[in-house]
Amino acid sequence: MARGVPAGNHNPYHDVTSKPGLFKAAWKDLYPGILEYHGNSRAVGVDPATMTVKLEVDEAKGDVLNIVPPHRAGDIAQKAGLITSNNRWCDVDWRTMESKAVKGVHVLGDATLSAPAMPKSGSMANNHGKIAAAAIVDLLNGREPQPLQIINTCYSFVSEKEAIRVSSVHRWDAGKETLLGVPGSVGVSSARSEAEGNYAWNWARTIWADSLA
User: Fold this and answer.
1) Is the dihedral of CA 91, 93, 99, 100 positive or negative?
2) Tens digit of pLDDT for each residue in 55-107?
């Protein structure tokens, strides 16, 4: 069963974060009686013996429970003094990915305090690595790092063959000193499809080769 957001020091009443309409339609059409989504249901406790999630006002049982605690940067970031926001995330200079708390340390991926409208995705983490690598080369050679425009793509399989997608473009804004989403750049699948599933596998093979080669 899919349940609400776990307890934490963030807003507990968010909707599905990414592609909510597409996810909910897939759950309703493909998994009736199997998977349920209950929004606005903050988890305050779990009883694994009875497979019960204790919510603020009632309880819910499931055959499979996937309890996700409130997210934050890892212990290594905390011990290194890199966390700067809400005791959870690491603020960075988006031209270089350098920590704003500890000079000379570059932070990538989900550990960062996201720029406006920036998702926490594998595609973004891959781009963060490229920003950092290019900036480090520039810095070692006495050059000013040049901000990069980056593209995010996030595919999600909702069945064995069908997937959904969201994509966006993010560009450095010198006035606001951050990466901002380019107006009109957000694209979302019109519906789940096997075609999107094929695109997803091609994207996956490409980014695996790019990241791990």
Assistant:
1) negative
2) 888 888 888 888 888 899 999 999 999 999 989 999 999 999 999 999 999 99
Q: What is the mean pLDDT of the chain?
A: 89
For the residues 171-187, what does the mean pLDDT come to?
95
On the 0-12 / 13-18 / 19+ scale of CB atoms within 10 A, 210 is: exposed
pLDDT band at 33 (very low <50, low <70, confident <90, very high): confident
Residue type, 76: I
Task: Sort strands 163-173 and 178-181 into parallel, antiparallel or unpaired.
Answer: antiparallel
Stretch (H or E) spanning 179 = strand 178-181
Domains identified in the chain and CATH numbers: 75-212 (3.90.760.10)
How far apart are alpha carbons 16 and 31 in whole angstroms? 17
Neighbours of 8 (CB within 10 A): 16
What single letter denotes the amino acid at residue 97? M
Give the Cβ contact number of residue 42 at 10 Å. Answer: 16
Whole-number pLDDT of residue 68: 80
Picking from 32, 4, 29, the residue whose alpha carbon sits closest to that of residue 16 is 4
Dihedral pair phi/psi, residue 35, rounded to 5°: -125, 130
